[in-house]
Amino acid sequence: MASPAPFEPVLSGKALAFLSTLPKRKQRRLVDLLFRLADYPHQLGDYDSVDELGRRIQHLQTGDLVISYWADDSSSELRVTDIEVL
């Protein structure tokens, strides 16, 4: 049985804008974290919510950041909708 295609992290404009404000070292660490998260796209977060389209959004807290995401199975993408500081 073939392994499933890997997921790619895809950032919303809001998440990308946040990422661009970080120093280069923190950017690299966060990008590495997003790729590791994309390896397990259906991982449950610390809590979830439902967006306006009815999608279940996972919210994962890591350090002082909360990463909000959902797995888009049809395109094998981990959709990162928001990254915010607590």
What does this entry look like structurally?
The protein is an alpha+beta fold and 86 residues long. It has helices at residues 13-20, 24-39, and strands at 8-11, 47-50, 56-62, 65-72, 77-85. It has a single domain (8-85), classed as 2-Layer Sandwich (YaeB-like fold), CATH 3.30.2310. The chain contains two helices and five strands. It has a five-stranded mixed beta sheet with strand order 1-5-4-3-2. The longest helix has 16 residues, at 24-39. The protein is globular, with a radius of gyration of 13 Å.
Element layout with pairings:
Layout: E1 8-11, H1 13-20, H2 24-39, E2 47-50, E3 56-62, E4 65-72, E5 77-85
Parallel strand pairs: 1-5
Antiparallel strand pairs: 2-3, 3-4, 4-5
Q: Within the CATH hierarchy, at the fold level, what is the topology? A: YaeB-like fold
Secondary-structure arrangement, i.e. CATH architecture: 2-Layer Sandwich
Please tell me the overall pLDDT.
94
Low-confidence stretches: none
What is the CA–CA distance across the termini?
42 Å
Name the descriptors.
YaeB-like fold, 86 residues, five-stranded mixed sheet, alpha+beta, 2 helices, 5 strands, globular
